[in-house]
Amino acid sequence: MKRIVILTGAGISAESGLKTFRDSDGLWEGYNIEDVATPQAWQRNPQLVQDFYNMRRKDVLAAQPNAAHYALAKLEEQFNVTIITQNIDDLHERAGSTNVVHLHGIITRSQSSINPELTYPIEGWELKMNEVCELGSPLRAHVVWFGEDVPMIEYAAKICADAELFILSGTSLAVYPAAGLIHYVRSGVKKYIVDPNIPAVRRLTNVVEIQTKATIGIPDLVEELMLNKY
After folding, report:
1. What is the DSSP secondary-structure string of 117-167?
2. Do the Cβ atoms of 173 and 179 come closer than 8 Å?
3. Active-site annotation, residues
4. Structural domain that includes position 81
5. Whether 170 and 126 share a structural domain
6. What mean pLDDT comes out for the span 194-203?
7. pTM for the complete prediction?
8. How many helices (H) and strands (E) would you count in the chain?
9. Does residue 19 surpass a pLDDT of 90?
10. In the structure, what pLDDT confidence band is assigned to residue 24 with cuts at 50, 70 and 90?
11. Angstrom distance (rounded) from CA 39 to CA 108
């Protein structure tokens, strides 16, 4: 089966009601990123950071997958599909996608605050400060903060290099290193960009721009690909 790789960003989750810090005011739910999404923030005020991610987790669990999520899951009926997402929610999985790479972690899991390889499922939405890992260290959200390494980036780059068709949706290509993944896709591979605001993609070939929101553009594209058995 043809290998399709999809890179998704915050825009696809925004259509399910989840806000992104890259809104016009530069804040994430009213917080400065430096206060809630950095290792330094955790050192200064771990309770504030924990509370912030607890509320984001509560929002994620209340949100529902949208038409774009469901359409991408449907692609698996005919293609070998890998979704690489910058999003920390689980909406792709809840829509039925079975092969999802989370570049920046997933908020429905926790991790040790001293060993990020130790991760655990979270029951419900609240993670408390007295919950600790097997090493005795407090648990935090399994999310890559600003200033931390992105452990899945090399794996994601290899996936992109093997793509036979590439789809980009919901990302402005402003956050690195994720923004550089599209450049690992081979020049001869067709690349679809589905977004109301098409990001600048210099020096790329075989690009098809679909300038509309994901809930409209993705289902239409998926229908076309499946009908033509691309």
Report:
1. T-EEE-SSS---TT-B-TTSPBEEEEEPPTTS--TTHHHHHHHHHT-SEEE
2. yes
3. 104
4. 1-17+66-104+150-230
5. no
6. 86
7. 0.93
8. 8, 9
9. no
10. low
11. 19
